[in-house]
Amino acid sequence: MIELQNKIAELAEEAKKAELNDKAKLEEFRIKFLGSKGLVKQLFSELKTVPNENKREAGQHINSFKLFIEELFESAKDLVSEKSEKKEQIDFTRPGEAVLLGSRHPISLVREEIIAIFSKIGFVISEGPEIEDDWHNFSALNFPPEHPARDMQDTFFVEKGEKEMALRTHTSSVQVRIMENQKPPIRTISPGRVYRNEAISARAHCFFHQVEGLYIDKKVSFADLKQTLLYFAKDLFGEKAQIRMRPSYFPFTEPSAEVDVSCTLCNGKGCNVCKYTGWLEIMGCGMVDPNVLEACGIDSTIYSGFAFGMGVERIAQLKYRVNDLRLYSENDVRFLQQFKSAL
Ligand code: DAH
User: Greater confidence, 98 or 253?
Assistant: First the structure.
């Protein structure tokens, strides 16, 4: 009897020490103590060997041990299932955390679109430096020495060693570099940033972006220029778009023209965007002046060509109706995120 009591005490001690913190350990515990061949069963079968007068008391001991084990098991089981329930509790109704996505800048979008349109008809991209010398920005482009564009008021001058350099005032400088380094036929567009010494306002900025176009070959005519620009306007603004050319002057082209596109808002009927003219100015163009061809080493008796230059901000302004130039460089997320779905 004492022996049985000691054994039960020992087993109770062991049961108390058992770590019952997961399902596998619980099951192991259940099999060991409460299983069909478990310790509780064994204790009951040992009752047979207990003398009759002690059977009742021994039975009570074993029974209360059995209850103790069952209780231990049940409460551990509750704890474990509570824990695993907590782990698996996922609230599917909770709103997700939004991933902040950036968007492309409107200037990049428009530049890419212009490039794509001219790429389709065989124009390749070329680039030049933003810090230019007088030759590439002015002289080779037939600017006379006293031309007002060379003035301090328009141009940012910088010193580079001995040489006076300037931040390029237009991407026409890339034309010169291409003609100096390549043999015709040449068909290229040059996107890039340009600088002018202007007070910043809604309508002017000290830097902006241009795309320059150049086509040099034998027998290139003004008709080719017109057709190329009409194709461009229709691709950019839609099939209904029309263009008109007004005579103008640039030192590097002769003849020169300014190009208008029919107002994209009122389709030429007249509105406040086109100032009731039905037309919007989009670029300058002309036939490359023979002086420029010669300055760049191209024989003007064999070759002719056309050139054009447009402001990317200007095109973006017409496409997206943004009429304050400053917005493009202020990096205001409220402005920028409006272009998320563009293109
Ligand atoms: N370079 C001129 C500007 O910045 C734009 C321009 C006009 C470019 C006529 C050309 C052109 O190639 O032919 O205003």
Answer: 253
Residue 267 phi/psi, 5-degree rounding, is: 50, 35
In the predicted model, what is the mean pLDDT of residues 18-37? 91
Ligand 1, pocket-test mutation among 168, 220, 229, 308, most atoms within 8 A of CB: 308
Closest CA to ligand 1's atom 6? 309
Q: How many alpha carbons lie under 13 Å from residue 292 in its C-beta half-sphere?
A: 29
How many other β-carbons are positioned within 10 Å of the β-carbon of residue 76? Answer: 19
pLDDT digits (tens, 9 = 90+) for 195-217: 999 999 988 899 999 999 999 99
Give me the residue spans of the domains in the chain: 2-88, 106-339
* pTM higher than 0.85: no
Q: Does residue 311 have its Cβ closer than 6 Å to ligand 1? A: no
For residue 168, count other CB atoms closer than 10 A to its CB. 26
Closest alpha carbon to 168 in 200, 134, 143:
134
- Give all strands of the β-sheet with 163-167 in edge-to-edge order: 131-132, 163-167, 157-160
* pLDDT confidence band for 126 (50 / 70 / 90): very high
Q: For residue 170, which atom of ligand 1 is closest to its CA? A: 4
Q: Which CATH number fits domain 106-339: 2.70.98.10, 3.30.930.10, 3.40.50.2000, 3.50.50.60?
A: 3.30.930.10
Handedness of CA 17, 20, 21, 24 (dihedral sign): positive
CA nearest ligand 1 atom 12, residue: 308
The pLDDT, as a whole number, for residue 342 is: 65
